[in-house]
Hints:
By secondary structure, the chain is α/β, with parallel strands linked by helices. It has 2 domains: 7-326, Aldolase class I (TIM Barrel, Alpha-Beta Barrel); 331-358. It is 42% helix and 14% strand. It is built from 12 helices and 12 strands. It has helices spanning 10-17, 21-35, 79-91, 110-123, 138-147, 160-166, 172-184, 201-212, 242-255, 272-280, 300-310, 330-356, and strands at 40-50, 96-101, 128-132, 151-153, 188-190, 193-195, 220-225, 260-263, 283-288, 291-292, 295-296, 313-314. The strands form 2 sheets. Strands 1, 2, 3, 4, 5, 6, 7, 8, 9 and 12 form a 10-stranded parallel β-sheet that branches. A two-stranded antiparallel ribbon has the order 10-11. It is globular and about 90 Å long. The mean pLDDT is 92. The chain binds iron/sulfur cluster (SF4). Iron/sulfur cluster is lined by residues 54, 56, 58, 61, 63-64, 102, 134. The site of iron/sulfur cluster has 8 residues, from loops.
Amino acid sequence: xxxNPEYSTKESLLExxxxxxxxLVFEAATIHRKYHNPREVQMSSLLSIKTGGCPEDCGYCPQxxxxxxxxxxxxxxxxxxxxxxxxxxxxxxxxxxxxGAAWREVRDNKDFDKVVEMVQGVNDMDMEVCCTLxxxxxxxxxxxxxxxLFAYNHNLDSSKEFYKDVISTxxxxxxxxxxxxxxxxxxxxxxxxxxGMGETEEDRIxxxxxxxxxxxxxxxxxxxxxxxxxGTPLEDQKPIEQWELIxxxxxxxxxxxxxxxxxxxxxxxMNMEAQALCxxxxxxxxxxxxxxxxxxxxxxNEDQEMLxxxxxLPKASFSDAPQPETKPDPILIERKRQEETREKExxxxxxxxxxxxxxxxxxxxxx
Length: 367
Ligand code: SF4
């Protein structure tokens, strides 16, 4: 079931969202049990492989170059470092790694070559690999798919109407195009939103309606609560109530019974009881690790303790879809060949120079 036909209009979905909370949670829990194993929660890790300096103006984001925020910006990480971090995340129980780069769009350059290599390496560790790199063309999506990318994340953030109050540097339609490019390349889609940015309940429902209008709604829908960061335009936004996040998780679960609903940013403000209600209401994944790109998140062991208290089990990778194959990348192969040729030429030139350099010539003084 792509979406729940009982709630396919804005009115019916809003009515669902506004139901008495426990009835809503009960309905969501019933659906969750029908389509998913309610004892399993996927632990995912999020790694910022390139932080800050983004030319976009997303009002919630500390990585936008135009805002003065206290983040440690860095260029793209080395492949080896990323693979090391992926290994640690896996050892700590994560079965999915999401790599994020603060780019407006992917460019066909050496940085993208590195991402392709990272995807290959993480997929070969038998972890689900997800990337969030900004706008993506069809060819770039195909290249990532070929490297073994499991999912591409590109959030719609909010309703089409509210979106322009938060972001002006790219259109809602451009986001839809990127999602379509990932989808056409055969990559699973991860796309969700942020609540607490000043939107209305209708906007929250509007976000879900945008997914209902898709031929295939996302397989994964992250629900975030705004983490208001000093220096961003939304810095003074009042934190949302935990109940609102529970409502949004439950409504999303009911609307898209087969998708994985991910309880994402904003968990540091939730107590364990509220998170338990989110799991009950259908959240099937959390992000583990003390950072969510640049914003705080509970520590690995805190989460492990929570799962153990609640009797929940970490979900294995590729439980929902088969692992993509890691195929050789012709561009990487060609680049490596060129590098090897250059190295050999340098070595040969050095040896030739040494051969013709006069040796053991006695200095004039010693004659
Ligand atoms: S959310 Fe992404 S696109 Fe928007 S400013 Fe942040 S890094 Fe850039």
